[in-house]
Design a protein that fits this description.
With 354 residues, this protein is an alpha/beta fold. The chain is 36% helix and 15% strand. The termini are far apart.
């Protein structure tokens, strides 16, 4: 930190993004990107919008919002588009957390939650997952804070049922519950239908995973109009033009190409199950995933060792050094060819280690 830095930043530990190495070509299974390119329709609309980039975009993103509202079955006033779902989550920390209202989340979950709490100067209440890495929903009943739950969870991939989420929302009538559905399209249940039943529920989603737009940075929040207006207050107080014209156009195309979206999600889920079976045959413990990744550990070597050996052989996965999960690696589901190659390399590593 420089001598000019605010004391507020002294305790902040920035989020560590997944590696984006440039030194050589890797099979890249470390940041949960899609193995498929954006839909042709999304690409075409993005290209067509390039000529208008001399002008600021519509800060309300009316065309995108109206199309999304029809897709998700809500009103346009119940959607806010953001620069990735991370921005939507940060807006929620700013709008709904303070010294009297802590942020409440699991000990093993999306790594940005503690960062958002620290950078915004709000207290946090951390609730341990159970020994099997699942959430005990009763731990979140009446917690007197703003609840953040990734569903499916990251990095575990484990999902709660919608009925269990509803119990948590219902048990916290005086506090906001934010459900981060970044990976919901890979087999979990969305809670969007609950937003008009409960006035304390916010859903965030992203176009980075299932819609192949990680590089576009496009996310959204869905909630009742009152809560969306609270988030808009933050947006219009920080960055009104938070999404580029090309990203918004790509989003319209991605929503419009439903057949492409459904086919890609189905392919990833099928590959995930095949890859999981292969890992189990090699002696791995694999948590039940409803995401586009698996969280697995070997009975033969540590998570750090497996990560290192895979990287030496041109395959990138993600390893976390938190004590509870240090023996695990998170492996993004790529295409069939990449996952077959990964299983072969893992088999070779295990033979050398033994």
């Amino acid at each position: 930190m420089s001598k000019f830095s605010s004391k507020r930043l002294s305790g902040v530990k920035p989020y560590v993004a997944g590696e984006q190495p440039q030194d050589k070509k890797y099979i890249k299974l470390n940041t949960n990107e899609s193995p498929f390119p954006p839909s042709p329709f999304a690409q075409r609309l993005a290209r067509e919008s390039a000529g208008d980039m001399l002008l600021y975009p519509d800060p309300d993103y009316k065309s995108l919002t109206e199309i999304a509202a029809e897709k998700w079955g809500v009103k346009p006033t119940e959607i806010l588009f953001t620069n990735g779902s991370d921005e939507a989550l940060n807006f929620a920390f700013i709008a709904f957390c303070d010294q009297d209202t802590p942020a409440v989340f699991a000990d093993i979950t999306y790594g940005f939650y503690p960062v958002f709490a620290e950078i915004n100067g709000v207290p946090k209440k951390i609730i341990p997952l159970k020994d099997d890495f699942t959430i005990d929903i009763k731990d979140y009943f009446g917690v007197s804070g703003t609840v953040f739950i990734a569903n499916p969870n990251a990095p575990t991939g484990i999902a709660l049922k919608k009925s269990d989420i509803e119990k948590i929302v219902k048990a916290n009538p005086d506090n906001i519950v934010v459900i981060d559905e970044a990976y919901v399209d890979f087999g979990a249940e969305t809670c969007v239908p609950l937003i008009n039943k409960y006035d304390n529920l916010i859903i965030t989603q992203t176009f980075s995973k299932s819609r192949s737009l990680a590089g576009a940075r496009l996310g959204l929040a869905i909630a009742n109009e009152s809560l969306i207006n609270d988030l808009k207050t933050v947006k219009f107080s920080t960055n009104p033009y938070n999404i580029s014209r090309m990203a918004a156009a790509a989003g319209i195309g991605a929503i419009g190409d439903e057949e492409y979206f459904n086919a890609n999600c189905a392919a990833i889920m099928k590959t995930r199950e095949t890859f999981t079976d292969g890992l189990k045959k090699s002696g791995f413990t694999v948590l039940p995933s409803k995401a586009n990744f698996v969280f697995a550990k070997s009975g033969s070597l540590s998570g750090e060792k497996l990560y290192t050996e895979l990287k030496k052989r041109g395959i990138l996965v993600r390893h976390f050094d938190l004590p509870r999960i240090k023996d695990f690696v998170r492996i993004t589901i790529g295409d069939n060819k990449d996952m077959e190659r990964t299983l072969c390399v893992i088999s070779d590593i295990l033979k050398v280690i033994k």
